[in-house]
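Q: What does the assembly look like in three dimensions?
Context provided by user:
Components: three
Sequences:
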Amino acid sequence: MRILETKNVTKAFGGLVAVNDVDFHIEEGEIVSLIGPNGAGKTTFFNLITGIYEPTKGEIKFLDQFLKKSKPYEITKLGIGRTFQNIRLFSSMTVLENVMAGQYCRTKADLFSAIFKLPNARKEEDRVMEKSLEILDFLDLKKIKDEIAVSLPYGYQRRVEIARALATEPKLLLLDEPAAGMNTGEKKEMQGIIRKIRDKGFTILVIEHDMKLVMGISDRIVVLDYGNKIAEGLPQEIQHNERVIEAYLGKGGAA
Amino acid sequence: MANLSRVLFNLVLATAILFGLIKILSKAFDFVARYISSIDKKTKRFINIGIALMVAIWPIVFINQPYVLRTSIIVLLYIVLALSLNIVLGFAGQLSIGHSAFYAIGAYVTALLTVNFQISFWIALPTSALIAALFGLLLGIPTLRLKGDYLAITTIGFGEILRLVLINWTNLTRGPAGIPGIPFPKIFGFMINTNLRYYYLILVLVMFTIFVSYRLLNSRLGRGLIAVRDDEIAAEAMGIKSTYLKILAFVLGAAFAGIAGSFFATYIHYVNPDNFNYMESVLILCMVVLGGVGSIPGVILGATVLTIIPEALRDIATYRYAIYGILLILMMIIRPQGMLSMASLKGGAKSENSGNKKRNKGLRGLSGS
Amino acid sequence: MFMEQLSNGIALGSIYALTAIGFTMVYGIIRLINFVHGDIYMMGAFFALTGLTVLGLPLIPSFLLGMIGASIVGVLLAKFAYSPVFKAPRINLLLCAIGAAIFLENFAMLVWGPETQSFPTLIENKTYSIFGFKATTLQLIILGVSIALVLILTYIVKYTKLGRAMRCTSQDMEAAKLMGINTNRVVYFTFMIGSSLGAAAGVLVGMYYKAAYPMMGFTAGLKAFVSAVIGGIGNIPGAMLGGLIMGVSESLGAAYISSGYRDAIAFIILIFILLVKPSGILGKSVKEKV
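A: Here is the predicted structure of the complete assembly.
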């Protein structure tokens, strides 16, 4: 089943076309990587899907629903979770609180019941706590749950961001450069984490620069260059695709 | 010119003293915060009960010293006010500098209802909160969608407009003359007419404010608010409806300021527009910032200190506001997180730096793009 | 009546425009709502007044004393109050500015007293009538000085090296730094120019209303902000336009609606603008990069 589909999606900033006429889809349970040189429009594409930008043209369909003028929080509620390229954790919160904040859109208690801890709010709080601990356990973060999240080393922060995104209970998880700035060992670990998440039944779209990681995890790869989709296919196909090599190395660069 | 050099000398001296004081107290408060974050729940409860008992018997000890009682009542009143601003500034991260407007609305609603319509204080109190909240909603909806600095100015503007209305709408408010003769509150025939009784009345209101602040902070809505304060874009990406939460905080803050205003009116028995000027808003703001934005114990401390200090330093009363200005600047330079900050109470005092660095994003956002 | 109010409005508007320019310049460089600006304007008026009365200087040196004195205050504040928190979260900078504003207001109260001080009458105020417009000598002087100062400013921003550095810094401070621009110097220079324009407005207002008092900067600063927002904050021509709109609507509003609510008009315009076009008439909207 196609979980997300975009048709002719275009985003122009003034004269600069950051994403141009991109058709894209992702099937349930897939891991798809979005690659391309710097400035190819990958993050912009993410921001279009998550409603931070509104497309200049084209449409985005998520689970049979068109995301037109939807606000980011509405899209998250529909089931798209994300992480950020430059980590954006809540700086005054502990790891646990960050993850619990991710559960916000799956809870309902209103002001009155929250303040007087009515039974429904109490039950909900317990569920949030349980669920958050479960996610932290799943990503091996339980032992640092009471640390202030932004005081942690970089690799952990990335993992906390993933945990927070999982807490929104997404059907589709968008990871923006999850292994950026990591060493080889950490990258390998991240690869394991992404696999593990998929095995839990999540669909994952990753932006990543590290080819080893991309080739290792992807079911399918989509390549963007100057906002255009230039290739799409299995990892082996992409590895030998001439347009892709050209985009990365320049014309004649392969020689 | 002699005057100029004398003022300059005094202010430089004040700056130096404040600088040293903040430096020393910072160390002391770091120590306290580390201690608080290290003690277990049981001891914490024990300490809280101890403080509550002390506050409860305090007025009985000083029953023959009306000055101490009056000052204590004012301290408690400002605790309600500072905590109400803390919901807006501390939890939601929205800089509102017209907070005394809601304080004024509460006071005037109570004054008008009790004086003109002989309505009981117990009805006037929630009505004041409700009407202040309504104004908060009306002001919040157009402004909270916008960037923080616009809000700051708009709230000042709102405060000024309100003051002008209070001055000019003489049929209703009697203009600059104000409304005198606000009666004592009565409950089941029991008149609240002594300082002691007023003390317990405002103490109950303080407890209620603390209770709501604390419960709010530890609920899903509180987490949502702090998320919005820390990083609005990330918060929205986590499914948090930031505009709704900001308005909620604003309305709640306005309601509590209205409660404070209502109490003020019955306690002083007289309201006039000058009670609620810009400097009053600034004073409340200073309390929150000094104590630690967002931190409930910190804000209580800030309100207490800034109410008592001017009483203690009567001799330099003319320098009071100038010193507040210096204090605000020095705090921002030396200890922006306040005396008892939220993070330090969580045991994350070390991370204060990295926290700040992280929040530089705000600045990057403004120097870039 | 209408024509009279209109020329009042234009005179007032050109003062607002001068104040708003300094305000908008600072915003353009460091994205700070400079709460102190109104109080710099007040300091300008008081310095000039001191020059006139205590030191017994003639008008033009006093005027210059006001501008120079206030710009020194502006730069000192930028150096000691603002620059230590440039790197901190934005709300800290804003609170610093509020602190500095409170400080200056009360400093003036301590030095010159809280009472309103009267400005000596220096210029014989005649009324001229041009094409049905009625204008007084002072109004013409205000208009003339404002235009002259704006022309000088435009020259500095457009044709000098420092002006170019200012424009670079306001677009992207980091990039400007990397290009070898001493951004600190640009910031101080901006404060200097902005403050001296604000002070000029303060002196003109002092002469116009023949009065100076410590809190005179409070509403003036807020109105400068509103003018800047109307025109599009960070935009110099926008600030001028906004100032004129403000001045005229205030004069007309005070005359035809209610003089008691004169100061409220600015905020009603502000809330209206924020609802309709928050980026202002000449401004562009900017979104944070994700």
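Follow-up: The mean pLDDT of chain A is 88.
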